[in-house]
Specification:
Blueprint lengths: L30 H5 L2 E3 L4 E6 L25 E6 L1 E10 H5 L8 H23 L26 E2 L26 H14 L6 E4 L1 H6 L6 E10 L3 E10 L2 E7 L8 E4 L4 E14 L5 E14 L6 E3 L5
Length: about 325
């Protein structure tokens, strides 16, 4: 190459080559709250009722016999407390005045991220924690009881473990000897759900390790396309063919590794006292401030339609 040839090594003023797309591969899926029905809460103490049918009896009467009466069993009144979750962003005025790659307004971009993060927080509260409900007070944040605090009828746990009361007032006791996830453990819980509930489960929610363990289960079918969450997730989902019906296998990054949740999606709901919403916070200096906030709780409509294999070493 001639010394008189102008090349890029000597040139001044070449613009930087920065893509106008921002790539973010961090997981943002929230299968549990995405698949759960949504309802309205009207107080920080959200209440609902459950009921059961009487057991089948040997029922025969003499001709002409008088009718006999038994007292009706009352419904069960349950409750959970709403939890306030928030994410915030503060952007300096100078930042908004600059030209940025990949987004127009920095605040809009940051609020989009905060909204996704808030959904992850909600998913974590519902299935990633083993917490009892806490009533809000002057110096105490309200806390919802997650899934593991409600399920008590159809469970399998290791030595040292114990079921909670089943009304959200206490957390379940973790077993002291974690074990591998086996088909026998799953079948025990599935049998219980069929026996104790008129509405069978439809979904198995578990982490990657335990999902991989299910690859060796005899009841696992080949992957087929399923609408695993109407309007939110349509993907290829593995299916476990139980003796009582198909169960879609949905992987979760947020469920506790020790848990495999077998549940009926329609029997768990997210109740919103305040829907997720963003608002501007009064500026206290040369910065724009915004908050995205939600107030919600978990409604356990009837835990007997679900089950839990827990104390796994996943």
């Amino acid at each position: 190459m001639s010394a008189s040839t102008t090349d890029t090594y000597d040139q001044v003023g070449i613009r930087e080559d920065l893509s106008n797309v921002i790539y973010n591969v961090d997981p943002s899926e929230t299968p549990f709250i995405s698949m759960a029905p949504k309802t309205k809460a009207t107080s920080v103490k959200h209440e609902w009722q459950t009921d059961t049918l009487g057991a089948a009896i040997d029922n025969k009467e003499l001709q002409g016999a008088d009718a006999s009466f038994t007292a009706a069993s009352p419904t069960v009144r349950l409750d959970n407390y709403t939890q306030i979750s928030q994410r915030t962003a503060a952007i300096a005025g100078t930042t908004e005045a600059t030209i940025r790659a990949g987004r127009d307004r920095e605040m809009n971009y940051q609020m989009l991220k905060r909204g996704k993060e808030l959904k992850l927080d909600m998913e974590h509260a519902c299935i990633g924690l083993n917490n009892a409900k806490v009533a809000p007070a002057v110096s105490t944040a309200g806390e919802l009881a997650g899934v593991t605090s409600w399920i008590t009828t159809n469970t399998s746990f290791a030595s040292g473990g114990a079921d909670p009361t089943g009304d959200g007032t206490d957390a379940r006791t973790n077993g002291t000897t974690p074990r591998a996830f086996t088909e026998t453990l799953l079948e025990t819980v599935v049998d219980g759900i069929f026996t104790n509930s008129g509405e069978f489960a439809d979904t198995i929610l578990l982490n990657a390790t335990n999902k991989r363990a299910m690859n060796g289960f005899s009841g696992r079918a080949d992957s087929t396309d399923h609408n695993v969450a109407t309007g939110s997730i349509i993907s290829a989902a593995d299916v476990y063919k139980s003796d009582y019906g198909d169960l879609k296998i949905v992987p979760s990054r947020h469920i506790r590794g020790r848990d495999a949740l077998v549940y009926n999606k329609s029997k768990w709901a997210i109740a919103f006292l305040r829907n997720m919403n963003s608002k501007e916070i009064a500026a206290t200096g040369d910065a724009e401030k915004r908050q995205v906030l939600v107030e919600y709780t978990l409604e356990a409509r009837n835990e007997a339609s679900s089950g839990l294999v827990t104390d796994l070493n996943g």
